[in-house]
UniProtKB/TrEMBL annotation:
Source organism, top-level taxon: Bacteria
Organism of derivation: Thermobacillus composti (strain DSM 18247 / JCM 13945 / KWC4)
Protein name: PAS domain S-box/diguanylate cyclase (GGDEF) domain-containing protein
Lineage start: Bacteria, Bacillati, Bacillota, Bacilli, Bacillales
Domain EAL, chain residue ranges per copy: 1-255
Length: 255
């Protein structure tokens, strides 16, 4: 059976789907500032199917909305369980697909899931991409404003790739700008990249937003970002995305 059909058959029970959690840290203090929930899908016969493969399929064939709902429900359930047992002060980030934002009842669905789970919406952050925002800036801004009014933070993901309109920084209620990992990758070898990253950081700060750099794989990249004034980071150097029990043990439990 083709992957698309397997995906459709899995939607009923969401069997084989689970979330991993990648920590986001404050660059100066090393304190946990957030975690990004990342979906995974493993089939008994095939093994794991990369999200870079099944997410685009799900978007194309109208399956991303139920999958996105499951992600939000599962992430909220986990966050509630953690917030009952551990200190707060950090947010849980969830990736949103443009197709989810385009649903007329998206905000109502978020309200329902947040209420059912009992999480504090102030602990949630939604990551959207530039392409999602640019598709329809006005309606996107309106929806994001509604979410922001509930305390949910918005992060602009993969910033610097695609059509990096600066208009987005001005028009959307963003709390966080995420510098795409391609910039992190080129940072040490390219002074042009360093200038661009430095500019993104200055602009974001001037607008009252915080910056998280993605894809930090080495200590040298981390130091360079620190010198440029970057506040937060995420990447394999600190940790790969972790199953919840490991994330809990390494970042939440204090012993
Ligand atoms: O985790 P990984 O780097 O393999 O993810 C690959 C892509 O899948 C990334 O672009 C990431 O944003 C996306 N992705 C991961 N989890 C989710 C999710 O829950 N929802 C959506 N829409 N995209 C996700
Ligand atoms: O598109 P988005 O930024 O949501 O993608 C996040 C993806 O990046 C996750 O699937 C995660 O597995 C991956 N990722 C996280 N840290 C690193 C890293 O340090 N290097 C690389 N190459 N990928 C990373
Ligand atoms: Na993301
Ligand atoms: Mn990203």
């Amino acid at each position: 059976l083709a992957i698309g059909s397997r995906l459709r058959l899995s939607l009923d029970t969401m069997a084989g789907f689970y979330l991993l959690y990648q920590p986001q840290l404050d660059l100066k203090s090393g304190r946990l500032i957030g975690a990004e929930a990342l979906i995974r899908w493993t089939l008994p016969d095939i093994g794991s199917v990369p999200p870079g493969m099944f997410i685009p399929l799900a978007e194309e064939f109208g399956m991303i909305v139920p999958i996105g709902e499951w992600v939000l429900r599962e992430a909220c359930r986990q966050l509630k369980a953690w917030s009952d047992r551990f200190a707060g002060g950090w947010h849980l980030s969830i990736n949103l697909s443009v197709k989810q934002l385009q649903q007329p009842d998206f905000v109502a669905g978020v309200d329902r899931i947040v209420a059912e789970s009992g999480v504090d919406p102030g602990r949630l952050c939604f990551e959207i991409t530039e392409t999602a925002a640019l598709l329809n800036l006005e309606s996107c801004a309106q929806i994001l404003n509604e979410l922001r009014a509930r305390g949910i933070r918005i992060a602009l993901d993969d910033f610097g790739t695609g059509y990096s309109s600066l208009l987005l920084l001005k028009s959307l209620p963003l709390s966080i700008v995420k510098i795409d990992r391609s910039f992190t990758h080129d940072l040490l070898a390219s002074s042009a990249t360093a200038s661009i990253v430095s500019g993104i950081i200055a602009m974001s700060k001037g607008l009252g937003m915080s910056v998280i750099a993605e894809g930090i794989e080495t200590e040298e990249q981390l130091e360079a970002l620190g010198r440029l004034g970057c506040e937060g980071y995420q990447g394999y150097h600190e940790s790969r995305p972790l199953p919840p029990d490991l994330f809990e043990r390494q970042y939440l439990a204090d012993d």
